[in-house]
Amino acid sequence: MIPNIELNDKKSIPQLGFGTFLVEPDQAERVVSEALEVGYRHIDTAAFYGNEEGVGRAINNSGIPREEIFLTTKLWNDRHEDADVALNESLERLGMEYVDLYLIHWPLPRNNKYITAWNTMAEQREKGLTRSIGVCNFMPEHLDNLVTSTDVVPVVNQIELHPWMQQKDTRATAKKHGIAIESWHPLGQMKKDLTEFPAITDAAEAHGKSAAQVMIRWHLQNGLIVFPKTNHKERMQENFEVFDFELSDDQMSAIEAMDQGDEGRIGFHPNERE
Ligand SMILES: NC(=O)c1ccc[n+]([C@@H]2O[C@H](COP(=O)([O-])OP(=O)(O)OC[C@H]3O[C@@H](n4cnc5c(N)ncnc54)[C@H](OP(=O)(O)O)[C@@H]3O)[C@@H](O)[C@H]2O)c1
């Protein structure tokens, strides 16, 4: 039911997954277990989220074969020079022998160590500790630098992307290199007053769907990989029920017209994150 996206290393990833940023460590096992019950088979976590233990317990106790679940974790910013140790620590917390995808969480261009981290991650992939490797929050210049400085192209770039900030330049650069895009804050964290955005509410009304479902559908129809987060099982179900309707070209264009470029940013700018 969930489509797969083929990555540039020939692995594939479920296009719809489940995010775990701000899922408290003591809630993670319950929340991820419920997401797996709903049907999600792609879970996105990070060392920085502090919830890898609970995420790993939920997966390991689910009874679902490990190979049926796609698990991503990420290298935090203070570990660019010892990624080998950092991944082993994540695997230990997860109780796993490998992850499906390991990502550099932020480029930290001022530190200029992401190439060091990347070379280590390429070795980790050779050792089978991670099946695929990628990056987050890389701007076009970081992507170009990584690809020209090393022989290893990231499979994904996970970036802030939602109707208010659509990242057209970074998406074009990623496309040039054959890198898939994952959208974070895909719902704008549901922080906006959506009554001010009829492109979303009109489409929701026309399809008998919620605003969240319309936004998830917009990511999917743009070929983006998306993993909304929620602590609530009924919302997990809601966010999963997005394959029984289709936004029209006009509805897609109306949401595209909401783009505010950099003005629409909610999270950190990649060059400013420490
Ligand atoms: N690489 C990076 O730097 C980075 C940064 C941020 C996020 N991420 C990843 O991307 C994932 C998704 O982004 P995000 O969690 O920041 O933001 P998001 O998915 O856009 O929004 C999550 C918020 O929306 C609410 N929500 C979810 N579904 C809803 C629904 N159907 N109706 C109403 N409210 C709903 C949740 O509330 P409740 O939980 O209360 O239901 C939560 O407050 C993260 O979890 C994480 O895995 C990566």
UniProtKB/TrEMBL annotation:
Residue ranges annotated for the NADP-dependent oxidoreductase domain, each copy included: 16-259
Keywords from the named record: NADP, Oxidoreductase
Top-level taxon: Bacteria
Family annotation (Gene3D superfamilies): NADP-dependent oxidoreductase domain
Similarity remark: Belongs to the aldo/keto reductase family.
Protein name as catalogued: Aldo/keto reductase
Organism name: Corynebacterium breve
